[in-house]
Amino acid sequence: MSVENKARWSQIDGVDALGFVEYVADAYRDCAFSVCPVLRGAGTNIKVIEAGMHHRACVVTEASARGFSCHPDIRPVLPIAKDAKELTAHVLELLQDHSKNCSFAKKFAEVVHRDFSYEGVREVVKDTVRAALSVK
What is the C-alpha separation between 21 and 4, in angstroms, rounded? Predict the structure, then answer.
C-alpha cells in the first residue's frame, strides 16, 4: 500500500490501514470473514475462492458472485448483496451471529475445496480436452 493510499484510508473513521501482510494465511486466520465488494465485472474474483480455501465466509455483491454462475453450489453458501445497504447488513449479521458465520464458512469451504482443488480443476480440464478432441 502506498503511503498516499494508507494516509487516505486512515482518514476514514474506524479504519486502520495496515498495508500488506507477510503471510496471507495469518490474515485469514485472524479475520472473522472476508468481503468482496466488487460492483462491476464478472470474473472469478479469486479472493472469494481464497477466503473459502482458508475456511472463511465471504460476503459478496451480485457482481462478485456472477463469476461463479457455472458453480451452482457456491451461491447458496455466500451472503450475496444487491447493493451497499444489503452488503452492510450481511457484514453486521455475520459479525453479530458467530454461529451463522461459522455455518457459512464451513459450507463455503467444503464447496471451494471440492470444486477448486487441484484435483477438481484437473477433472474440469481433462473433461474439456476430451470433449474438444472428440468433436468431429
Answer: 18
